[in-house]
């Protein structure tokens, strides 16, 4: 993959701005890009070590694989995730464009609105609310340890289906997440730089505790799971784990250009993201299995909610520190994967009325109003939601990557992309709707979701992201293209 970046000039940016584009949608010149290898290395650390991911590993253990195979499968998943992130982030780092414009280069200026809304207006906002609620449960436990009487406020009375202590905890955590979102990438860089060392210290300490509590590594590796699936093909179990892990990244991976547009170079984002995800998942694969199984052995139960294990500790400072780190990792995940993309995408949908900050505020308010604690009433809700997001966004990612690398051949005409939408743009390669992209996306979406409704095709739902991605990728390449084919001579000469 070529890594030479487009030499964007300030004159070009000023020309695009004159066409009624706000600063959040304009491409970034080199002097405004501040994310190097170190920034990308720390960017995704918190997104790996979050509460839902640890809960998911408990589900992986029930697939019937041995603990060592679960570790290996989770670690290998990083190869798929890092490849997805760096390849789909190439357009952002080469041209300095955000996800909204990357999407336009694939689906057209009108066609980009629907997949953009699904990513930033539906997936991001709903997942932002769900993550806030998950994190607020950890905050509730931590406050209860510091102030036991807090849990008795309201005497069991509920408001909108949630107890008063839970509502207060959710509101506090929601505000913290909104503040980080309003700060954007600059605040996030500083936040993740501080968070990453804390993750290593706390998760490493928890793994050491679990090893000692279980009596060593041997008992953990030999642990038999009561109720685990029997007779499953190990290769299929590996594929299920790969799919589940990459489905977690379906949304942030689709909109990764919102971050790679800030890369000092394509090489920097490639190296940084690869190292970040490989190191994070190697550590996560080991620590998650060791902590969950080691804690289960120690307490004589099968417990796959890491918060419940931490709550059982009798070391008060350790409980507070561990809960605090998981709260911070949830905030990091929420910022990178949800509220920042939501802010940018709402700006793209309503460029004349919203900017990034107002987009963040609107998305945040909606995430509160949907009452995510009701969405989480069913214990399987998070995983149903993730599978659905993977099935929806897998096809979008397949079309985006096929278009950029095999149709556009890594060339985007920025002058045409930043068209004046109030003018007649007939003949512009990015105008209208890319019908081929829509056909490929819809067919792949139907196929990837079919396992949810047709019992005979249930296996498809286990690998829905891969099915959706591969189907859309293949179909799109064989269909005639309606946009994105033309690249001006001047553009080619500049690259």
What does this structure look like?
The chain has 495 residues and is mainly α. Helices cover 70% and strands 1% of the residues. It has helices at 10-17, 37-43, 45-48, 51-61, 67-88, 90-95, 99-107, 113-146, 164-214, 217-221, 234-248, 250-254, 257-260, 266-299, 306-312, 316-349, 356-369, 372-375, 381-407, 414-417, 435-450, 458-462, 464-478, 489-493; strands spanning 158-159, 162-163. Strand 1 and strand 2 (162-163) form a beta hairpin. Helix 7 crosses helix 19 (381-407). The radius of gyration is 23 Å and the shape is globular. The model is unreliable at 484-495 (pLDDT under 50).
Quick structural gist:
The protein has 495 residues and is mostly helical. Helices cover 70% and strands 1% of the residues. It has helices at 10-17, 37-43, 45-48, 51-61, 67-88, 90-95, 99-107, 113-146, 164-214, 217-221, 234-248, 250-254, 257-260, 266-299, 306-312, 316-349, 356-369, 372-375, 381-407, 414-417, 435-450, 458-462, 464-478, 489-493; strands at residues 158-159, 162-163.
């Amino acid at each position: 993959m070529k890594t030479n970046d487009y030499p964007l000039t300030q004159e070009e940016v000023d020309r695009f701005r004159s066409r009624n584009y706000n600063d959040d949608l304009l491409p970034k010149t080199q002097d405004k890009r501040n994310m190097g290898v170190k920034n990308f290395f720390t960017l995704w650390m918190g997104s790996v070590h979050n509460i839902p991911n640890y809960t998911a590993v408990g589900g992986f253990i029930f697939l019937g694989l041995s603990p060592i195979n679960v570790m290996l499968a989770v670690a290998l998943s990083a190869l798929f995730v890092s490849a997805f992130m760096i390849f789909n982030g190439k357009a952002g780092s080469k041209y300095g464009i955000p996800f909204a414009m990357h999407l336009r280069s694939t689906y057209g200026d009108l066609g980009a609105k629907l997949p953009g809304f699904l990513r930033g207006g539906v997936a991001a906002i709903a997942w932002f609310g769900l993550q806030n609620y998950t994190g607020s449960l950890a905050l509730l436990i931590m406050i209860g340890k510091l102030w036991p009487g807090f849990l008795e406020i309201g005497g069991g009375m509920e408001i909108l289906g949630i107890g008063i202590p839970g509502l207060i905890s959710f509101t506090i955590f929601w505000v913290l997440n909104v503040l980080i979102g309003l700060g954007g990438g600059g605040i996030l860089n500083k936040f993740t730089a501080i968070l990453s060392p804390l993750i290593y210290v706390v998760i490493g300490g928890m793994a050491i505790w679990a090893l000692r509590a279980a009596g060593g590594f041997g008992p953990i590796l030999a642990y038999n799971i009561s109720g685990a699936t029997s007779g499953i093909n190990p290769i299929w179990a590996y594929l299920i784990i790969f799919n589940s892990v990459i489905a977690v990244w379906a949304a942030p991976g689709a909109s990764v250009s919102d971050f790679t547009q800030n890369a000092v170079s394509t090489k920097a984002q490639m190296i940084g993201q690869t190292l970040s995800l490989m190191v994070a998942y190697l550590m996560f694969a080991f620590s998650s299995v060791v902590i969950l199984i080691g804690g289960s052995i120690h307490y004589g139960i099968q417990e796959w909610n890491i918060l419940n294990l931490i709550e059982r500790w009798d070391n008060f400072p350790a409980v507070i520190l561990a809960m605090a780190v998981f709260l911070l990792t949830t905030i990091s995940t929420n910022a990178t994967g949800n509220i920042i993309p939501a802010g940018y995408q709402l700006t793209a949908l309503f460029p004349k009325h919203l900017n990034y900050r107002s987009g963040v505020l609107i998305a945040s308010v909606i995430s509160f109003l949907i009452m995510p604690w009701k969405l989480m009433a069913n214990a399987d809700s998070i995983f149903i939601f993730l599978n659905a997001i993977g099935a929806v966004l897998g096809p979008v990612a397949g079309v985006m990557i096929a278009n950029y690398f095999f149709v556009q051949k890594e060339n985007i005409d920025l002058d045409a992309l930043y068209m004046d939408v109030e003018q007649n743009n007939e003949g512009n390669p990015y105008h209208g709707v890319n019908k081929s992209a829509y056909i490929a996306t819809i067919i792949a979406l139907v196929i990837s979701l079919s396992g949810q409704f047709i019992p005979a095709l249930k296996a498809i739902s286990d690998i829905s992201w891969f099915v959706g991605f591969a189907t859309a990728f293949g179909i799109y390449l064989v269909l005639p293209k309606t946009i994105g084919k033309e690249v001006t001579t001047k553009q080619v000469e500049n690259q």
